[in-house]
Amino acid sequence: MARLLCFFVIAIGIFAAEDPWAKVRDIKSGTDLRIYKKGVKQPVIAKMDEATDDKIIVVVKDEQVAIPKDEIDRLDARPAQTGSRITKETKVSTTDATRSASPRDAVTGSATPGTSSSTSMSIGSKPDFQTVYRRAPAVSAPK
Fold it and tell me: Can you say how many angstroms the Cα of residue 115 is from the centroid of all Cα atoms in its chain?
C-alpha cells in the first residue's frame, strides 16, 4: 500500500512539472500577450491579468475578457524589459584654430577654435514574443 501511495505522489509531481499551463499561471500581470484561438487566423493582442486552471483573463483595449483554455491553440508572451530601450549618443567636435576655414581668416586673423556638439536619441525595439503554451494535439483512440 505504501508503495502504491509513493508511486501516486511521484506521478502527481511529474504531471505537475510537465503541465504546460503552469507557465501561463506564472505570467505576471501586465505582460503583453499574443493569443492564437482555435479557428481564428488573427491573434488576440492583450495584457495579462490572471490565469486559472481553465481560463485566462486578459485586458483587450481597456476591456477585461476571459478566454477558456480549451479555445487557445497557442499563447505567446513578451519577456519583461531589462534596462532602458532609449539610447543617447553625444558627439563633440572641436575645430583647430591653426587650420583656417577660409583664406580670408588667415589674412584677418579671425580664425578661432570652435566646439560643436550634437546629441541623438534612439528608441530600440521591444523584446520578441516567446511561446509559453501550445495546446497538445488531440490523441485519437486506437481502432
Answer: 41
Domains parsed from the chain with CATH numbers: 2-83+123-134 (2.30.30.100), 86-113 (no CATH)
Which three cell numbers, joined as nine digits, stand for 50? 490572471
* pTM of this prediction exceeds 0.70: no
pLDDT in tens, 14-63: 444 578 899 999 999 999 999 999 999 999 999 999 999 999 999 999 99
Neighbours of 47 (CB within 10 A): 16
Query: Reading across the β-sheet that carries 130-134, which strands appear in turn?
Result: 63-68, 55-60, 44-51, 32-37, 72-77, 130-134
Rounded Cα distance between 43 and 57, Å, is 15
Rounded average pLDDT over 97-111: 58
Half-sphere exposure of 72 (CA within 13 A, CB side): 25
Of the pLDDT bands very low, low, confident and very high (cuts 50, 70, 90), residue 88 is: confident
Rg (CA), the chain: 30
